[in-house]
Specification:
By secondary structure, this protein is of the alpha/beta class. It has 13 helices and 9 strands.
């Protein structure tokens, strides 16, 4: 583990005032935030996000907890190796290695978007280290029979999909704003914090590869879903943006059926609940942790 000496002058330090730490994993160098002391809260982001997504949560919870927020390889301030497979299962393997190297125990796991399958996939393998789970809009079951996913998969696996993702930073520039129900919540300054991690074509393969995995990893998602029993009896909090156009209320119904004892907090916002409803989400997690 080492402190970074890299200069990321584009980072808004008033929003993200944390020390960066790096760890060498077998697949590459991973960046993460490690703030505060106490019981561990481990934050796992999706695409095209990074640990910046959880900045308000870290500021608050690091007063009484040890808050750890990673950047997946290919995202945020982590290394972006072009030869890294970049599937959710590969990211889950990285997360397992990270958890084991830091010997993290008694973890409150917070996941969102692709971070759901990644984080829960790693948690299933490390279920004895997991205390409880906080789930934002996400999924963990097969996707190949979903017509909307089939449509997306055809585009992203075409030459046009690669062109848009690699040449135009399509995910961060165009898809990210669509994740907000109220566009007033995404300022130009905020948006830049999600665009800058992908400055050129070579830095965007991670976003492209995980996009291809929406359908491509369908069988792996289903295998995790079938193995979820290792986690299903633990305490769960589900915080759900009800106006999410990507991961809709139909997904929430499936979670409620699978984890019937979960505490559910529905908020009127889009996909990026952490941006649009940070305060309400923080209060819900506080109440959950203190129960």
């Amino acid at each position: 583990m080492k402190k970074s000496t890299l200069n990321h002058s584009w980072i808004d330090k008033s929003e993200y005032p944390f020390n960066s730490t790096y760890i060498q994993l077998s697949s590459g160098e991973m960046h993460y935030i490690d703030e505060g002391q106490g019981d561990i809260i481990l934050f796992i982001h999706g695409t095209p996000a990074w640990s910046f997504l959880y900045r308000n949560f870290i500021k608050e919870f690091s007063k009484n907890h040890r808050c750890i927020a990673i950047d997946h390889l290919g995202f945020g301030l982590s290394e972006k190796p072009q030869d890294f497979l970049g599937t959710p299962q590969a990211h889950a393997d990285n997360l397992c290695e990270f958890i084991e190297k830091l010997n993290l125990q008694n973890i409150t796991l917070v996941v969102h978007d692709f971070g759901g399958p990644i984080g829960l996939g790693a948690a299933i393998k490390n279920h004895n280290r997991i205390k409880q789970i906080v789930l934002f809009n996400s999924w963990l079951w097969e996707t190949k029979n979903n017509p909307a996913v089939q449509k997306i998969d055809k585009i992203i696996n075409s030459w046009l999909g690669s062109f848009l993702y690699l040449r135009f930073n399509f995910s961060a520039k165009f898809l990210f704003p669509k994740g907000f129900a109220n566009k007033k919540n995404i300022t130009k300054q905020l948006h830049q914090q999600y665009i800058h991690p992908f400055p050129n074509k070579n830095s965007r393969y991670g976003v492209l590869n995980i996009g291809k995995s929406l359908l491509g990893s369908s069988d792996w998602y289903q295998a995790q879903w079938e193995d979820l029993g290792k986690l299903s009896k633990k305490p769960w909090l589900i915080i759900w943006g009800t106006k999410d156009e990507f991961i809709t209320m139909e997904y929430l119904k499936k979670w409620k059926k699978r984890i019937p004892h979960a505490i559910v907090k529905e908020l009127e916002c889009g996909h990026f609940v952490q941006e649009e409803e940070a305060e309400n989400s923080i209060q819900a997690i506080k109440h959950f942790i203190n129960q």
